[in-house]
UniProtKB/TrEMBL annotation:
Signal peptide: none annotated. GO terms for biological process: translational termination. SUPFAM superfamilies: Release factor (SSF75620). It comes from the Eukaryota. Residues 67-170 form the Peptide chain release factor domain. It comes from Solanum pinnatisectum. This is Peptide chain release factor domain-containing protein.
Length: 176
């Protein structure tokens, strides 16, 4: 009698046959007791080789799949890291640009302040100097107002995406 055995992983192996013999043993006390011989469970060498090849092939495939999963996870993390770094670098560059602009504006304010102080110290009645100082003061006030508005509408103060619409003309006067 033979039993046909198919591997659980069909693509890796071919079916093999296991010979099983049934022997009737006659005992004086018991007649007709059937037993399976112990040598019937041993596989022949060819079958054993196929089983081992199936095992190693399956093991190699599992290792390959696990490596691929790790690569995909690593790539996903790397991609996220690159996106995070790009966003962070963009924010850093924006902050740097804002700081440079503020520094330049501050330097301009200091220069204008120095000119006004020098004009006051000269104690002159020269109208040209007074007009120049008056113009500088007006420009400084406008620049300070712009700076304050920029500070209020950008950075941590602009969490809600505020939009300001300024209209001028007769239509603006009609609304109360």
């Amino acid at each position: 009698m033979e039993i046909l055995v198919q591997s659980s992983v069909g693509q890796y192996s071919k079916p093999f046959h296991i010979p099983i013999t049934r022997v009737t043993v006659m005992d004086r006390r018991r007649e007709g007791i059937s037993q399976l011989t112990s040598h019937s469970f041993f596989l022949n060498t060819e079958t054993r080789e196929w089983a081992m090849q199936d095992f190693y092939t399956l093991r190699k495939d599992v290792e390959t799949v696990l490596e691929r999963v790790q690569e995909i996870r690593a790539a996903a993390g790397l991609k996220q890291l690159q996106e995070d770094l790009a966003a962070f670098s963009q924010e850093t560059l924006q902050a740097l640009t804002d700081c440079k602009d503020k520094l330049n504006l501050l330097c301009d304010f200091k220069k204008q302040k120095r000119i006004i102080k020098l004009t006051e110290e000269m104690d002159s009645i020269d109208s040209v100097f007074l007009q120049e100082a008056s113009g500088i003061i007006k420009e400084l006030n406008k620049a300070l107002d712009r700076f304050e508005l920029t500070q209020l509408l950008s950075g941590p103060y602009d969490k809600e995406g505020a939009v300001i619409t300024i209209t001028a003309g007769a239509a603006a006067l009609m609304h109360r």
